[in-house]
Design a protein that fits this description.
Layout (H helix, E strand, L loop, with lengths): L2 E4 L2 E5 L4 E5 L2 H9 L3 E4 L7 H8 L3 E4 L13 H17 L3 E4 L1 H9 L5 E2 L4 E9 L2 E8 L2 E2 L9 E6 L5 E6 L4 E4 L11 H11 L5
Parallel strand pairs: 1-4, 1-5, 5-6, 6-13
Antiparallel strand pairs: 2-3, 7-10, 8-9, 8-11, 11-12, 12-13
Helix pairs in contact: 3-4
Length: 204
């Protein structure tokens, strides 16, 4: 199986004075369902390039959890790791997929602003785009409403209240969704095929 690297959220455990990297086990399950071998990435920006070089992944996934520090988050090491991984993906032509916070990191990297949104936490809603209409989960309180000029990204789908829910890069194999594919009770074939096609470099 080809390898796919995935990021981890930062949990602060005050009683132990620890900052822990961790991830929902369903993320690994989803990656396996996509026929890849899941490998978690530490939030250590100084070793990420060597990490990627040694493992030669088919793709990288920026996962959910932790707001960006500029929008109230408390995990700056994760912000730096996400940004570094995007840089590496571009430089090494490695396909990259981000969901929820991961898509926010992609938006931020390419110069787009996030804003607070209501009615998008722990709900399900429809998204409308080039692939038609589908129902997805939603667990985010911040989102992007309009892409900046020269952002190099395209909008694939939006919600009825104009929140951007899905993006892709105009040139690189970079894609993002605001929904969590791993949080579906049964993984959606649409999400599985999207990740497979992206990491096989079949779609932008």
């Amino acid at each position: 199986m080809q390898k796919v690297l995935y990021t981890q959220r930062v949990e602060i455990v005050e009683s132990y004075q620890e900052r822990r990297d961790c991830a929902d086990q369903r993320i690994a399950d989803f990656i396996v369902a996509c026929d890849f071998l899941p490998i978690p990435i530490p939030n250590k920006v100084e070793i990420l390039e060597e990490f990627v070089l040694q493992l030669q992944p088919a793709g990288i996934i920026l996962t959910g959890g932790n707001s960006l520090e500029k929008y109230g988050g408390n995990a700056p090491e994760r912000d730096k790791a996400d940004q570094k991984l995007i840089e590496i993906a571009i430089k090494k032509y490695i396909p990259l997929y981000g969901f929820c916070r991961g898509m926010q990191s992609i938006l931020d990297y390419f110069g787009n602003e996030l804003t607070d949104v209501k009615g998008h936490v722990a709900v399900r809603h429809n998204v409308y785009g080039r692939d038609g209409v589908r129902e997805v989960n939603s667990y985010h309180g911040q989102a992007c409403l309009e892409l900046a000029d020269q952002s190099e990204l395209n909008v694939i789908s939006r919600t009825e209240d104009n929140v951007i829910e899905e993006i892709c890069h105009q040139k690189y194999h970079i894609r993002g969704t605001m929904w969590h594919p791993e949080r579906e009770k049964n993984f959606q074939e649409t999400d599985i095929m999207c990740v497979k096609s992206l990491f096989r470099r079949e779609i932008l």
